[in-house]
Amino acid sequence: MNVAKFLDPNSWIDGSIGPLYVRLRKRIEDGIESGVLEPNTPLPPEREIASLTALSRVTVRKAIEELVDRGVIVQIQGSGSFVTEKKARVEQSLSRLTSFTEDMERRGMASESKWLERGIFIPSPDEVVVLALGASDSVSRITRLRIAGDRPMALERASLPLDILPNPTAVEKSLYEVLQASGNLPVRAIQKISAINLDEKDAELLGVPENSAGLHIERTSYLSSGRVAEFTRSKYRGDAYDFVAELRLATN
Ligand code: 16G
Questions:
Q1: Measured from the CB, is residue 235 less than 6 Å from ligand 1?
Q2: What is the four-CA torsion angle of 53, 59, 63, 65, rounded to 10 degrees?
Q3: What is the DSSP letter of 133?
Q4: Is the CB of 113 under 6 A from ligand 1?
Q5: For all residues of the chain together, what is the average pLDDT?
Q6: pTM for this prediction
Q7: Is 156 in the pocket of ligand 1 (CB under 6 A)?
Q8: Domain boundaries in the chain?
Q9: How far apart are CA 67 and CA 84, in angstroms?
Q10: Which site from 69, 92, 178, 211 is most exposed, i.e. has the minimal number of CB atoms within 10 Å?
């Protein structure tokens, strides 16, 4: 839709509440949220918005200032105001064994987790096989919604042999920190990545529409002794992550 038509005050200004600059700010935010105003769309200059909306330039300036403060509009000197590019995707190297907390810290993002499951369980058949458990062994399991910069990124279920993680409730922020403290930090891992469509429950937790594209990742991590320390299955939001692999020319 054309921006001038979108800002035509007859279709929104009276049905909206609050001071005029807040109404204008919300109108533009709604346009961005709904996708009518796409990333990189140029906004008309202040004076043009003022004449389109019959609002004063002071009101328009205040609305734009708030949109800039919120990071949804970017002002480029000499070029004008534009709808900001969507939040950057996170790139994760496929050649380094790192934890979610470390990956996010390196990008200056705060991470947190919502706990979905944390305890000691009877293992499933695939946990028995991958973790090489005995017939009567239990498994330590932690299932978390991983959040970075307020955005849900992944659903992650980690399973570990009980002697490697005897007390799953000891994990508060980082699993790898707890493993490092007990001398059980994995040194190598194999990851299998496949494409999925997120079902209703997972999509809701990840804050995306049902059936959105996602990545299913299985990580099996090993101690230096060669023993399996961790079997983690994750579902990542397809729009949040890029996995990057560095390839080198084979020399033989
Ligand atoms: C990453 C790993 C996961 C590991 C977690 C530990 C992938 C696909 N998965 O998310 O296997 O358990 O980091 O993170 O990269 P933490 O130390 O922050 O708990």
A1: no
A2: 130
A3: -
A4: no
A5: 90
A6: 0.68
A7: yes
A8: 3-83, 90-244
A9: 10
A10: 69
